[in-house]
């Protein structure tokens, strides 16, 4: 039985591959592993059968035999540890790649996420005019630093790794800012050109298009 992951049956990102199942799909594609997808409505995420897999009632989850995982970072790390293709075999390089996964999730994603969510959910609020530039400036601090670190390299630390996979999925949410960071824009484009990324993106797009047709 291939692993089963969960994803939105109709993603609010309208097929742009911004929901966090995209990371898991991409990691499985990089690892050359087949997988199945169980699609969930927002309401179904809060039903007991899903809460038994994910205490916070979210996607993605990952089930493989008796193993159940939630949190996209933990799932991608598990895939990277179980199959070749995402984490270097040299122990020091592997530790650094895992470090970049944490940097993506814990240092770069929060300000990008906060700025994006404020734009989406708070744009009609009176405080938004003052708050949005503050949030955007915080995101730009990280983008500046990351761009300087990347420089002219293709990937964050030698060969492509799960650290790049995670970072690129985070940066895709900041696409409105990336025009000011050509090195980061090129980094994202390089990652998006990978065949594994393309397969993962196409798979999630088919789901959204099917849902749009049925609605
Ligand atoms: N830290 C967790 C992880 O990395 O796995 C976060 C998981 C998470 O946020 N899941 C979201 C979810 O299930 C979907 S990805 N939300 C439903 C709920 O909480 O009830 C977040 C997301 C949502 C929408 C868009 N979008 O429209 O662009 C992008 C990303």
Question: Nearest-angstrom radius of gyration?
Answer: 17 Å
Which runs of at least 5 residues are low in confidence (pLDDT < 50)?
none
Which structural class is indicated by helix and strand composition?
alpha+beta
- How many helix segments? 9
How does CATH name the architecture of the largest domain?
Up-down Bundle
CATH topology of the largest domain: Glutathione S-transferase Yfyf (Class Pi), Chain A, domain 2
CATH class of the largest domain: Mainly Alpha
Separation of the first and last Cα atoms: 31 Å
Strand order of the largest sheet: 2-1-3-4
Largest sheet: 4 strands, mixed
Describe this protein's structure.
This protein folds into 2 domains: 4-85 and 196-214, 3-Layer(aba) Sandwich (Glutaredoxin), CATH 3.40.30; 91-194, Glutathione S-transferase Yfyf (Class Pi), Chain A, domain 2. It contains 9 helices and 4 strands. The two termini are 31 Å apart. The chain has helices at 21-30, 42-45, 48-51, 72-82, 91-121, 128-150, 162-172, 182-192, 195-214, and strands at 4-8, 36-40, 61-64, 67-70. The model has no long low-confidence stretch (mean pLDDT 96). With 215 residues, the chain is an alpha+beta fold. Helix 1 (21-30) links the parallel strand 1 and strand 2. Bound molecules: S-(P-nitrobenzyl)glutathione. The site of S-(P-nitrobenzyl)glutathione has 14 residues, from helix 2 and helix 4.
